[in-house]
Amino acid sequence: TVFDCSIIQVAKVHSKSGNITVLENGSNIPFDIKRIYYLYDIPGGESRGGHAHYELEQYVIAASGSFNVILDDGVSKKNVALNRPDYALHIVPGLWRELKNFSSGAICLVMASHKYDENDYVRDYSVFKKLK
Ligand code: TYD
């Protein structure tokens, strides 16, 4: 459910010349990262997502700028604001998600538990509701 999704504060190595935040398999992420992708150059007013996954688990990070992630388990919805590069939203499998309200220059960085597989997507909301 949406209540299984949490925001994780990832450690920050701070210095006067800037910050580093690290995600490392087997140490501070609950699945092994098989794929990394990032969304950028998102035009104002656009939304992304609009699908669920059967198996895929993700960490979503606002590497730059801000946006909102709306999670939906078919019963409850949760709206999460991401706006800091050291916070990761853990999205568990089986949830409908939409990404909205991207700020100008936003970068949405995603760590994924599986390689890209179109068969893992549910892209029709009525199909998603029936599965639930
Ligand atoms: P999609 O996951 O629907 O994007 P979003 O959820 O951000 O709106 O993917 C959009 C397109 O990009 C789709 O045609 C498939 C392609 N794509 C890949 O080829 N590999 C990937 O790892 C991802 C995430 C998308």
TrEMBL record:
Protein name: WxcM-like domain-containing protein
InterPro entries found in the cross-reference section: QdtA_cupin_dom, RmlC-like_jellyroll, RmlC_Cupin_sf
Coiled-coil regions, chain positions: none
SUPFAM superfamilies with a match to the protein in the record: RmlC-like cupins (SSF51182)
Domain annotation Sugar 3,4-ketoisomerase QdtA cupin: ranges: 4-131
